[in-house]
Amino acid sequence: AQSVTQPDIHITVSEGASLELRCNYSYGATPYLFWYVQSPGQGLQLLLKYFSGDTLVQGIKGFEAEFKRSQSSFNLRKPSVHWSDAAEYFCAVDISGGYNKLIFGAGTRLAVHP
Amino acid sequence: NAGVTQTPKFQVLKTGQSMTLQCAQDMNHNSMYWYRQDPGMGLRLIYYSASEGTTDKGEVPNGYNVSRLNKREFSLRLESAAPSQTSVYFCASRPSSNYGYTFGSGTRLTVV
Question: Deepest of A24, B33, B47, B72, by most Cβ within 10 A of its Cβ?
Fold first, then answer.
C-alpha cells in the first residue's frame, strides 16, 4: 500500500540554525509531492510542491525541498530557521489514482529555541 | 475571496447525537475532501468528491456520510456521534492534480 513516512515526530533547533525535515514515500511511480505547514489552531498551508523537472524546488517562507528518486525521499530544508517557523510540517503525496487525493505523513512538530 | 469556509469552528456533542459539518468553497474547484486529524496520525481521508455529483469513501469512512450539494458545498454528517469521533475535521478543495489543496480552518469536535 502507498504510504508516507516522516521519521521524526519532534525536532528542536536553535534560531538561526539550519533545518532538514525528512519524508519518504512508498509508491511505484513518481508521485506528485507536497509539503504543508500547520501553525497551532490553524489549517494547513502549502509550502511547496514537486511534479517534475528540477529536483530542487523552492517554496514560500524560504523553504526548499529536494526530490531524490533513488531514495524515494522529498526532504524539506531551510538554511536559517526563524522563531516563527515553529509549527507542524506535513509531507503529502498524490498517487494520481484518478481522484487526486493526497496521502499525508504523520507530521513533524518543529520547536525553535531562541 | 474567502477560500474554504467551515462551520462550525467548535462543537461539543453527546454520544448518540447527530450533526452536520458544513464546508463551502468559492474557488470553483472540482474536487473536495474531508479529513480528520488526530495526534500522531496526521490527516486521514474520510470521504472525497472528485466532482459535483460523485462521492467516494476514503481511509476512515465508518460512522460518516457526505453530501456534495453542489459544486461549492460538501457536507459531512455524523449520524450517531461516538467518543472515537472526537477530532479536528478539515475540509479541503482542489482544482486539479497540478495544484495542492486549499484547506479550511477546521472544526474541533468533542464527543462526550
Answer: B33
